[in-house]
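Hi C.,

You asked whether I'd gotten around to modeling the 139-residue construct. I have! Everything is below, sequence then structure, no commentary in between.
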Amino acid sequence: MHRFKIKYLYFKYHHTQGSLYLNLGWQLIGGVFSCMLVSLFTHEWFDFAFSKISVQSWLAVFYLAFAGSIIAFSCYNWLLKKKPAAIVGTYAYINPVIAVLVGSLLANEHIYINQIAGMIIILISAYLINKADTQANSV
């Protein structure tokens, strides 16, 4: 948890030069190259064919790139200017819960009891951590 707080505090007070969207673009390009390197080392690239990818898979990739990266990163940076870093850092815990719920609502994915238990643990943990931080800061 403290590793995340350090990252959020660093980016809150150490702004990168250039446009937010330019920096986001570079991060996305870096992610693409990183994934390509991993696929080369694991030999996944050799069995790859565009014809094997369904339209639904392409739509999911574009959704993740747009909603999961561009919109989420923009909202994260906006919120970081408005709220304390400890509160903004909770997105790392809450996003998976929201992703499971959206998948269930939009894609009719099934939610199993172990996922519900995991989501409850995540939400309670995020609450307790932030509650402890709030109490520690008010003393």
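If it helps when you're writing up: The mean pLDDT is 79.

Thanks,
B.
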